[in-house]
Amino acid sequence: MIIMITGGQRSGKSEFAEQLALSLSQRPVYLATAQVLDEEIGRRVAIHKERRGERWLTIEEPLRIDEAGVESGMTVVVDCVTLWASNWFFNSGEQVDKALDEMKRRFDSLAASGATLLMVTNEIGLGGVADNAMQRRFTDLQGAINRHIASKADEVHFIVSGIDMKIKP
Q1: Which one of 31, 88, 145, 168 counts the least CB within 10 Å of its CB?
Q2: pTM here?
Q3: Residue 97: what pLDDT?
Q4: CA-CA distance, 155 to 139, in Å (whole number)?
């Protein structure tokens, strides 16, 4: 099963995904895509880890999520697709098509694992058109990978101010 959880930044997506995962598994997996590049991100990661507690197995993998050891029967929160997209965007030299091809391939491989996947992502295009070309290219990548994941998802949830609006099925 694939469950996509989307919404704006700080809307409550991660907390929703974590609660849903705990309702599905006694020992869920948190597949973190963030790279700790500064103190502020480090503090956010520490807060997330503390909130989850001991029941969670945490795997940190910024790029190759399909090589993270996910297996059938696991319940896995991938948090988040936006950071994963950012990692691939810069890894590919800001080439949207190259990054998107790699992300689609790796997501499809992860989905074939048979695990229950809860894919947390952002709707970054809701705030208008970015004022520079790099941001617009990244928005293109984010929108394309979100559409790909949503097309494969069994459920899609849109979180607004902590409120779940199930939009698929």
Answers
A1: 168
A2: 0.93
A3: 98
A4: 23
